[in-house]
Amino acid sequence: xxxxxxxxxxxxxxxxxxxxxxxxxxxxxxxxxxxxxxxxxxxxxxxxxxxxxx
Length: 54
Prior knowledge:
There is one protein chain. This protein is mainly α and 54 residues long. It has a domain at 12-39. The protein contains 1 helix and no strands. The chain is elongated and about 55 Å long. InterPro entries: DUF6026.
């Protein structure tokens, strides 16, 4: 017999929430930077050459 899912409520301070949002924004910017780097590297590759995966 399975039990129904439970709702979990947590409390977070405003400063903690702000810090988490700032960290999320920073990580999203880092993702965009890395994606742009990958795209540029792909454009710099000669046609038909696949980069090695590490």
